[in-house]
Amino acid sequence: MELTTADVIVSQDGSGHFKTLKEAVAAAPNNSITRYVIYVKRGTYNEFVEIGKTKTSLTIVGDSLQETILTGNMNHDRCRNIQLVNSRLSSDGAVFYRCHIDAYQDTLYAHKYQQFYMECQITGTVDFICGDATAVFQNFQIEARRPLVGQSNVITAQSLNDTSEVTGFSFQRCNITASLDFTPVKATVKTFLGRITLLPSFSISPPPLFHGF
């Protein structure tokens, strides 16, 4: 992106306004009605970032899927053995575009409200797209990873808990693949498209493409 379009720049080498995304978010205006853009330069940022409800009209842009990485400061091998939400989204009208969300169990917790995901990539094992949001996933690349011994993979777990709610997941033009480490054992492990946690609610239109299964 052109640097002139960003309000502030985050760079680990000190060439921007902030060295961490957390600092940039904290400094963003509250209850803004105009778009405020934070540009995060390439690098691996080992930090947890919480964007509160007062940080409205906020856009965060990186260099690419491979170059701007937010890790959450967690050990990757440890994450494989515990239930841990990678990304929780409780914002109405939130949009994720060309993001890669990488974890194991509960990778993306689409908690509530209306959300839109386009041309993103996600990896996981158990319930790795979960929550009670009304969410649309377009051109989404879904990669099932190798689970722990004795586990099965479950891609979605939409947790509708009230029949008066109008929530659900809609997957449009999505691909489902097996990761490189999962491929050798995929014939011995069950992978489910979804499971009912409370009330049935997810939808798929049109059917996704399964590659490598």
Description:
With 213 residues, the chain is mainly β. The protein folds into two domains: 1-73, no CATH class; 76-200, Single-stranded right-handed beta-helix, Pectin lyase-like (Pectate Lyase C-like). Helices cover 6% and strands 38% of the residues. It contains two helices and 20 strands. The chain has helices at residues 21-27, 76-80, and strands at 8-10, 36-40, 43-45, 58-62, 68-70, 87-89, 94-97, 100-102, 108-110, 114-118, 121-124, 126-131, 134-138, 141-144, 153-158, 168-172, 175-178, 191-194, 203-204, 209-211. The strands form five sheets. It has a five-stranded parallel beta sheet, with no helix packed on it. Strand 1, helix 1 and strand 2 form a beta-alpha-beta unit. The radius of gyration is 18 Å and the shape is globular. It catalyses: [(1->4)-alpha-D-galacturonosyl methyl ester](n) + n H2O = [(1->4)-alpha-D-galacturonosyl](n) + n methanol + n H(+).
The rounded Rg comes to 18 Å
Helix content: under 10%
Number of domains in the coordinates?
2
CATH topology of the largest domain: Pectate Lyase C-like
Mean pLDDT: 86
Number of helices: 2
- CATH architectural label of the largest domain: 3 Solenoid
The largest β sheet comes out as: 5 strands, parallel
Count of DSSP strands:
20
Strand order of the biggest β-sheet: 6-9-12-15-18
Overall 3D geometry? Answer: globular
> Would you state the CATH class of the largest domain?
Mainly Beta
Structural class: mainly beta
